[in-house]
Design goal:
The structure is a single chain. The protein has 245 residues and is mainly β. The protein folds into two domains: 47 residues, SH3 type barrels (Roll); 188 residues, Fumarylacetoacetase-like, C-terminal domain (Fumarylacetoacetate hydrolase, domain 2, Alpha-Beta Complex), CATH 3.90.850.10. The chain is built from two helices and 18 strands. Strands 1, 2, 3, 4, 5, 6, 7, 8, 9, 10, 11, 12, 15 and 16 form a 14-stranded mixed beta sheet that branches. It has a four-stranded antiparallel beta sheet with strand order 14-13-17-18, with no helix packed on it. It is globular. The chain starts with a strand and ends with a strand.
Length: 245
């Protein structure tokens, strides 16, 4: 099932795909989804970020990326960086190289605490795409990622949440810049599994419905410049597209 957020004259609405229409729902985190009876044609609907998270957890898979002695470290990214499909990323021009990073994002659907590898996915509502934009040169100055990960629209999510992903550990990721394929990888190349990131995160922090865990970049980072157009495709989910200003 696909869950999205769309713009409407009365504000943002959560919807589910229903044939050629989006069917408006009351609460995407309810055990039994309730449709309001209102529908909007999919063609022409303006997609917003499929979630309004109160918390975004980033995962640093250090082994395999920078050979840090710790295999997993988590950090928090500001919800003020959230953007949606087709929103323009405002690239900082005074901080050196700016990278985009195509990642699988996990949307939490129920309270998650002390998860195990056996039940890690039980608390998951679904999965979406995130572009974890990064002022990469700031990492040498700011290990907490405040400067490196902050910026206008530095966290585009979308295009929707897919609740029935066959295997989160085996999702192919393709990053294209201006229509040309730049990187092909996938969650299968993460140094730590998607389940392991959820186990680690909930060992230290309780997650709640709507929280998001960005599972990390399996070497899907590449530099961008003003004027670039970025497409990030995850098999089984779709394509997230954004321009860079």
């Amino acid at each position: 099932m696909r869950i999205a957020r769309i713009a409407s004259p009365t504000g943002a609405k959560y919807v589910v795909a229903d044939g050629d229409n989006w069917a408006i729902i009351e609460d995407p985190f309810a055990v039994d989804l309730k449709k309001t009876g209102e529908t909007v044609p999919i063609d022409g609907a303006q997609l917003l970020s499929p979630i309004e998270p109160r918390l975004i957890v980033g995962i640093g898979h250090n082994l395999g990326n920078n050979e840090h002695p710790l295999p997993i470290q988590a950090w928090l990214k500001s919800v003020h960086t959230v953007a949606g499909p087709e929103d323009a990323i405002t690239m900082r021009r005074d901080v050196g190289t700016v990278n985009i990073e195509g990642e699988l994002a996990v949307v939490i659907g129920s309270i998650a605490e002390d998860l195990t590898l056996d039940n890690a996915f039980d608390a998951v509502l679904g999965y979406t795409i995130v572009n974890d934009v990064t002022n990469v040169d700031q990492s040498k100055l700011d290990e907490k990622n405040f400067q490196g990960k902050g910026g206008t629209n530095y966290s585009p999510f979308g295009p929707w949440i897919e609740t029935e992903l066959a295997d989160p550990e085996n999702v192919a990721i393709t990053v294209s810049i201006n229509g040309d394929v730049a990187i092909e990888s996938g969650s299968f190349n993460l140094p730590s599994s998607v389940a392991a990131t959820l186990v680690y995160t909930t060992k230290w922090l309780t997650l709640y419905p709507g929280d998001v865990v960005m599972t990390g970049s399996p070497k899907t980072m590449t530099a961008v410049s003003p004027g670039d157009h970025v497409d990030i495709t995850l098999d089984g989910i779709g394509t997230l597209s954004n321009s860079v200003n």
